[in-house]
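Input.
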Amino acid sequence: MRRATGGGAALLLAVIACRPPAPRFTLLFLGRSPAASLGGLSWAPDPEHSRLVAFDHELHVTHRISNPRLATPMAVAPLGPAELLVTERTGEGVVVDTSEGGRVVREWESPDVASLYAAGGGGGRVVATRSPYYVPQLSTPEPDTAPLIRLLDTLGRPTGGLATIRRPATPLLDYVVNAGAVAVGGDGAVYYAPLVRDEIQKYVPGGQLAWTTKRGLFPSEPDPEFLPAKGAELRLKAALVNVALALGPPPDGRLYALGSDDSAATRLRVDVLDPATGAILATRHLGPRETAVAVNASGALAVFDADSLLAGADRVAPATREQFGPGFALPDLAGDTVTLARFAGRVTLVNFWASWCDPCREEFPHMAELYREFDRRDFEIAGVSDDVDSRRMLAFVREYRPPFPILVGGGRMKQLYHYRGLPYSVLLDRKGRVIERIFGFGGAEEFRKLHDTIANEVRVP
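Output.
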């Protein structure tokens, strides 16, 4: 066997030293969501996996945060030195502390049907717009004096507003016309871009409109119109123009607008704007797999495949698995009390469901199949009904005849476990710690992945 000589080692070190430094990136958009810089990392929502992820300057995933209150996170914004303000798809604002593993500090309900939140100005200014991520086609008309952009304090309480809503020809379309992306600068300036209109606006901290920029996408821009219905489905003709806004890092702090080249937002583009004047400095048209956008240290745009960036997220395990809680003590269908401790020593899927939940009906046969594939010494399911009406719960059980234990939550479970909707499942290891959370029903493919996760976990003594 040959040994490397000292001279060879010196040559190797010289070669390594001559390599150019790795590029440094700041993530702007992941998918159709804005990212946020905090603590030297780029944080972004990953709604498909119900989590937040953090990237270093080489866009490697370094942290991930999951929580029952993060069902479908759609946007993040910095709120103080370690806190992130997260927008849920259904409009709740959730503040998490990144320095404490993602502990939820507080949350609040949306002031609109659903809201998108942004923060800036040293963390002291919080704003909310009608969310472009959840847009009902019809909504109750709002008063002409309703603010276009709501100002909130850091507890989510309304304190004022900027501008007023646009009133479309059909008032029931107020929401779709006034939904829009938003960002807040370090000086407290607010940038707003409506979902279905070709314009981007800046409001100075005092509330005055500073500029309006148009891309010139359409020769004329009518309000959304109704199309012939398909069955009971209402359809609208609308050009989806603006998807998300983000401000780049200093010193330039340019404004980046993720928008669309077509009416359905299937072909995306990024426009780079001068935040002082609104002038469009550059435009980048994105390809089908260019689904993440970043800027490097010299201010140049770089595009990536978001799925490839996120591929490393599953390999980033939390420092420690959190203990599931609070522990339950609930009656089963025979009236006997069943506690969480009964499942200790087995991998356990705690599934929250209700008879009125249509996805729960689709999910139950898959859970029954999963239950039969593992030995009871290794794996268990606890199906916790959150029905208030016991008769409907029992009718559901008679119809589906689940082979696993059913526990009676009596309508109190959401308050205890803080989930957004049903079904909601938590997979626990043999020590009662959270392996993963599952929001909603993801079909057969989700259960194939769940089966593999359980199979790997049951091998751990």
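Residues 1-17 have pLDDT under 50 and may be disordered.
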